[in-house]
Amino acid sequence: MKKKTLSLILASAMVVSLAACGNSNTPADSPAPAPENTPAETTPADNAQESTAENNQEDMSPDNSSEQADAPTDDTVSVEGKIALVTDVGTIDDESFNQATWEGVVAYGDAHKIEYTYYQPTEDSTEERINQIDLAVSEGATVIVLPGYLFGETLSEVQTTYPDVNFIAVDVSEGDMTAPIESNAYACTFSEEQAGYLAGYAAVKEGYTKLGFLGGMAVPAVIRYGYGYVQGVDAAAQEMGVDVEVKYTYGGQFYGDANITAKMESWYSEGTEIVFACGGGIYTSAMEAALGYDGMIIGVDVDQYSVGEGNDYNPVLTSAMKGLTATVEDRLDAYFSGNWDSIGGKVQNLGLADGDYIGLPTEGASWAFSTFTKDEYQKLLDGITDGSIAISNDTENQPTVGEGVTVTYID
Q: Does the global pTM surpass 0.85?
C-alpha cells in the first residue's frame, strides 16, 4: 500500500460544494480569500455588507478597485457595468464548479478592464442567495452570474425584482425554475452525457476493465454523467471485444466522508481499478481510497489533475469536463458587447455541436493516457459533434449494454 499524502484532499474537502452536479450540504466555515488579481472592491454601502463580512469571518472584497475603476474601458466593450458572481454555499477556490465559473468572470473582467467581485451566501437557502443578490445590486452590479441548479428558484424571483439587471445562470434548466425565464435572464445546462461518454470510452481504451461510478446525489446532471459513462464504456468494450465490469452507486451527498471512503476502499480492494467520481467534493473519498490501493479516479466538471498532485503518484487519469469558464466568458461578452438580445430569455443546452463546451483535458500532464491516443480522441469528438455517435440523455432508464459488459447498480 502506497504512502498517502492527503493534506490536499482534506483541505479540498472543506471547500468543495456544487459541481456541475449539485451543491454541498455542508457549507465551509469561511470563504476563501479572493484571488490577488481581482480588480473589484466591494465597499460596504451599509450595515448589510458589514454583517455579511462578519458572518463569513473575513472581507470577501478585493483591494484594488480604485486602480481598476480608473482603467480605460476596452474598445470592444460597448456597455458599461459591473460583474458580480454569487456562489452557492461553497467558495470560489473549490477546484470545481464555483472556481470554474469565477475564473470566467476573472478572465473576462481582466481582459476588458471591467470591475468584478463575488458574494458568498452564509447558508444554503433561497432567501440567503437572494440576500446576496440584493447586496450585489445595491453595490452597482449590472450583470450577475449564478452557478448551479439551486439558483433556479432564486433566478425565477430576482429576474422580475430587478428587470434592469441581467442574470447569467449556469447549469440551471427550465425544470429548476418556478417561472418562465424573462428577457433579462439567460440560463444553460450542458450535455453531461457526452462528457461521461468520453471518459468511459477513453478509460476502457486505456485498458481498464473493472470500473466504478460514484455519483453525488441522483440529480439529472449527475445521472447524465453516469449514464453517458456507461454508454462510453460499453462502446469501447464492444469495439475491443473485451469483458468489462462497472459498479455504479450514488453517495446521496456532494462531499466525501468516512462512510463513502469505506465503500470505495471495498471496491478497490475487490479489484476496481478506476472510479469516475462525479459530485463536487465526493471525489475526496474516491481519491483517498484509490491512493490506498494503487487505484485511479476520473475527475469531473473541470480538469482535476492538480488535486492529485503531491502524492506518491497522481491518481487522476482524466476529467470529464464541461466548458464552464468559456460559457461565462462568452455570455458576459454578449452583455458587454451590446448583444444581449441574442441570448436573453433563452435556456440552452450546450454540447459539442455548440462549441468547445465538452471534453477531456489535453494539455501537458493532464493528458495522462499512455494507450488512448489524441487521434482516437479527436475521432470520437468528431463523431459526437456530427451525430454519427449517438448518446442518449435519458435519465429515466438505465442504459442498455452489449455482450460482455456487466453493470451492477448498488444502493
A: no
